[in-house]
Fold:
Amino acid sequence: MQQFLQQVVSGLASGGVYASLALALVLIYRSTEVINFAQGEMATFTTYVAWQLIDWGVPFWVAFFATLAFAFVFGVAIERVVIRPFEHGPVLTVVIVTIGLLVLLNGLDGWIWGAEIKSFHSAFPTRPIDIGGVAFSLQDIGVIAVSLLAVFLLWLFFRYTKVGLAMRAAAVNPDSARLTGVRVGWMLALGWGLASMLGALSGLMIAPVVFLDPNMMQVVLIYAFAAAVLGGLQSPAGAVVGGLLLGVMLNLLGTYVHPVTPELRLPVALLVLLIVLLVKPSGLFGRAVVRKV
Amino acid sequence: MPLLELSDVEARYGPIVALQGVSLAVDEGQVVAVLGANGAGKTTTLRAVSGTVRKSGRIAFAGQELGRRGPEAVARLGVAHVPEGRGTFVELTVWENLRLGAYTRSRGADLKADLARMVDYFPWIEERRDQQAATLSGGEQQMLALARALMSRPRLLLLDEPSLGLAPLVTREIFRIVRELNEQEGLSVLVVEQNANLALDAAEHAYVLEVGRVALDGPSQELRSHPSVRKSYLGY
Structure:
């Protein structure tokens, strides 16, 4: 039982990381139907920025928030400069542009910071905490708390603010949104900014665990894809649930099903992706909009 | 000076010419109707004003040239366009649709008072405000589209075929409300409508479009007795 609870909590922690990146993918997919393949590399780049700030002696939490702010501006700028010229082109063109961006950013990381692995300090103490006789890692609990808090803040933003509502309107019906005065182009850019922030968050949370190198987020991106597809690519709530579910599932399989060694985690995630696409392509939270004409 | 003035406006969709030199005017506080058969350019006329189609020629609103302004910018000048198909945000709730209508209003704007006003016009909104707009009937969606446009407190309302797909009773109710808005609040309206009878009842002045040109215009009463209007649009 003790081992089970520990594995669930540590699964939720990695799930929180997948969920943040999955949510970033969904934010962009929902409004433009583009899968941003560069999402992981954008996250790695911003994590390097945080590492650099900390290396220069900036306190962790200052660097943390400065990095989130940078990530937002970075995301908006990428949309405005790199994606916007292809806004009216076919989706495939934009997808290929994001793949180009992936390669470019990956190279840039290595060029600026070198290819060697860097250690990254955790925001949370590594000692365990005792809850009801079970020892949990404070690091895991901190990661879960941060990702849930981020999701909650995002939900508040979309639900209760004017800009959040305008972003949703621009995503579901851009023509009509324009007629009500919403600057749809800027809403897309804001979406990229928020997605980039979520990516930075996932990078900052995973870096202490897997260490920082230019390819750090590549595997995480695949887990995030699996999570987003599991939840339903159109559904932000689905991305979060999908991420947490995938994290816990992979952890439990690794602990209790012996053939599933750590090397098999990725194939299992891909298997989940395949099964969801075959059985229920719209995902667990696939859109159930009633349409009446 | 008219509130809205189109002079020699041309518009095309690729190689297809939709408007070939349309001129018309809407005075402040006036309801103006545009009649015409399918494909005569009625919808395109509204789209030219709101900036959702590229056009040439002059369009002036409240003394300002609209030029190449896009729909976001035209909306900010006080033009509310209820497009063909109503443009309802079906995934969002009734209240969210109304909040979006007020998007161009300043931050301090008293939306609660406006919501109350909308409930006066459309009492069903009250109990349905948290319902997804997709669950509304066609008539309710048309009314919601109208309410959404009114939430922006527009100077000019562009209304595209409000009767489309609706029962006659619902259509009459919508035209009654448009009339009331015009009489009580001085709202100026440019309405496009296939149902010439209803449109001529509601409007003071009307234009008849034929293949992208104004074929005829005049006060509604005069048009009503014009032989070709009677024959082609009123059917008697």
In short: Residues 2-32 of chain A form the longest helix (31 residues). Chain A has eleven helices and two strands. Residues 2-215 of chain A form one domain.
